[in-house]
Write a structure and sequence with these properties.
heterodimer; A: 31% helix; disordered N terminus; B: 495 residues; Rossmann fold; 2 domains; nine-stranded mixed beta sheet; disordered C terminus
């Protein structure tokens, strides 16, 4: 899998960028091949984002088997690792994201109003 | 691999040279090739340095590129640290002989939510290994992962997988680990490493530090089990692999002059055996250093290289003092035949001194070594240690066929004090100097207490130290000597 975007909503991105950039989430998920944990993590992430961040997020999935050189930049050790690129500060969550509460706390997600 | 020679059977384990002075000798050729070795010890013991030297030597000297995964120091810091040893890691990385990957683990940035493994680490390592076609890997130190990864059950199984992965890829690896309280390493890494475990130790006794290295296990190979002293200096690590197991050194039969014709006369007219060890003991001011300097000068005059370790006086002090007794040592220094090495006894522990002496001897290959005096070394440690160190040193000197002279200060009233008794059994020749005041006129006296393998004179002679140098005077009647000679029982035991 190449770098792909889970939910590419350019219109949402543009709108978010215009209004308040701190509201927009860029989430990068590092996986290594289609392992059960990777597949679970992708599914879990999509679900959480749809629930909590509808229209305000972008997911980048990076498969390190294809781009191993990208592991160093974000200091990836564990797989899967989710990196919150935006808003700052950078946060990392490791695991298949099955513990939804931990993901919400870890990403510091506000409930959708 | 050619298998024609039956010798192949006798080398069961391929080894990877570390290039670290002494370590390859102690391990019989280096670390097990294609296996993982653990180097453990407490903070500041030199683990990282050993690992880096292994890597850099591999890259430069043995054509084996290496990857360093560092969990503790950033690339910049590591490069700066190793630069002090003269290694240019940047240049090596540019040449694709070395790759450094700093793995930062910041616990407070990472949350856990569900199952994971350490594939990220594997992928990074595999990528680096593939990029430079590495043959060597250093993981320094993986225990940082324990602080960063919350689930230690996952971590342990992943580490095991990592070590297996390294072996599957035929990488020769060093993993470092901090010493634990009851175990070799804090997280019991030694349980996962079956092939080779090396423990480093940095001890401070009586405010003097000593570094030691021990091979805890090395599967499939015979290895020394002693603790070997090692040094860290501007050339990196050097281990002292002394204590040869057998007394097999060759006894030379040719002789060297003592520098005093009359003393040569007392020893069958020929002087000491070459490659033998000579002990000179005496109370303060009896001319021990003068004798040593005289001996050194005579060696230099024959065109031999002499290495003079001084623990009491600076070289310039010795040069000045010896001029006053008619010895011009400076010309030998200028000619490059006489090398002084001044060390403070308390600058390091005995093992450190031993390591330094060993290193100098290996470097200069002298035919004569003088240690003046060993008394000061005694102050750096207990008697037992001094003896064991001197055994190793004397042993080494004999194997190298180096003639050696040790001076030792004794105290009036302390009958042939303890040190002399403990070390004298190692020595081939023992010359005793002392002063006496028969009829109120002070004089120095000399006699040869023992000299193995020759019919030496047992007479006591007056030692005359003047501007003209050292000479022996008249044969003394045994009135004062006889009593003094017999009183220390330790001497008899030593003989």
């Amino acid at each position: 899998m190449k770098i792909s975007t889970g939910k590419k909503k350019s219109s949402a991105k543009k709108r978010a960028a215009k209004t308040s950039p701190s509201d927009f989430y860029i989430l990068r998920l590092y996986i290594a091949g289609q392992t059960p944990n990777s597949v679970t993590a992708i599914a879990n992430l999509k679900k959480i984002c749809e629930d909590k961040l509808k229209g305000k997020y972008r997911i980048e999935v990076i498969d390190l088997l294809e781009k191993p050189q990208l592991a160093k930049g974000d200091q990836i050790i564990a797989i899967p690792t989710l990196v919150r690129r935006l808003p700052p500060p950078v946060k990392k969550i490791i695991g298949n994201l099955s513990k939804t509460e931990s993901v919400i706390v870890g990403l510091d997600l506000q409930p959708v109003r | 691999m050619p298998r024609s020679s039956p010798r192949v059977v006798r080398t069961p384990l391929a080894k990877s040279r570390t290039g670290i002075q002494g370590l390859d000798e102690v391990t019989g050729g280096g670390l097990p090739k294609g296996r993982v070795s653990l180097v453990c010890g407490n903070a500041g013991c030199g683990k990282s340095l050993l690992a880096m030297e292994f890597l850099v030597n591999g890259a430069i000297r043995y054509g084996e590129p290496g990857v360093c995964m560092n969990f503790e120091e950033t690339e910049e810091k590591l490069i700066a640290n190793v630069a002090s040893l003269g290694f240019d890691l940047r240049e090596l990385s540019k040449l694709k002989k070395l790759s450094i990957d700093y793995v930062s683990i910041e616990r407070n940035q990472i949350a856990e939510a569900g199952e994971y493994n350490l594939d990220g680490l594997f992928i990074r390592l595999a990528h680096a290994v593939k990029t430079i076609k590495a043959k060597r890997v250093v993981l320094d130190s993986v225990q940082a992962l324990f602080a960063g990864v919350g689930d230690s059950a996952i971590l342990r199984s992943e580490l095991q997988r990592l070590f297996r992965w390294l072996e599957d890829h035929k990488l020769t690896a060093i993993v470092t680990g901090e010493a634990g309280v009851h175990t070799l390493t804090r997280y019991g890494l030694e349980e996962y490493i079956a092939d080779c475990v090396i423990a480093l130790d940095h001890r401070v006794t009586d405010q003097i530090s000593t570094r030691r290295l021990r091979i805890v296990k090395y599967r499939g190979t015979s290895h020394g089990t002693d603790e070997y002293p090692f040094l860290i200096d501007e050339d990196g690590i050097s281990v002292v692999p002394i204590t040869s197991l057998a007394l097999t050194h060759i006894a030379l039969t040719d002789r060297v002059s003592t520098g005093i014709p009359a003393l040569d006369e007392m020893m069958e007219g020929k002087g000491f055996f070459r490659g033998s060890s000579v002990l000179v003991t005496g109370t303060a001011g009896t001319g021990k250093s003068s004798m040593a300097a005289n001996f050194a000068s005579a060696a230099c005059a024959r065109g031999e290289l002499c290495l003079y370790f001084t623990f009491e006086e600076s070289p310039s002090q010795i040069l000045r003092n010896m001029r006053s007794v008619g010895l011009d040592l400076e010309r030998w220094v200028k000619k490059g035949l006489l090398h002084f090495n001044a060390m403070r006894p308390t600058s390091t522990g005995l093992e450190g001194h031993l390591a330094a002496i060993h290193k100098m001897i290996v470097k200069l290959r002298p035919s004569l070594v003088i240690i003046d005096p060993i008394t000061n070394l005694v102050s750096a440690s207990g008697n037992y240690d001094v003896k064991s160190m001197l055994v190793r040193l004397v042993d080494f000197l004999k194997v190298e066929q180096v003639t050696s002279m040790f001076t030792n200060l004794t105290f009036a009233g302390d009958p042939q004090e303890r040190t002399a008794a403990t070390v004298s059994s190692l020595m081939d020749t023992w010359i005793v100097l002392r002063d006496s005041k028969p009829n109120g006129r002070p004089r120095r006296e000399l006699y040869v207490l023992k000299s193995r393998g020759m019919a030496h004179s047992r007479e006591a002679r007056e030692l005359i130290v003047s501007k003209k140098g050292l000479e022996l005077g008249i044969v003394l009647k045994g009135h004062t000597l006889a009593t003094k000679l017999d009183d220390p029982p330790a001497v008899a035991a030593a003989e």
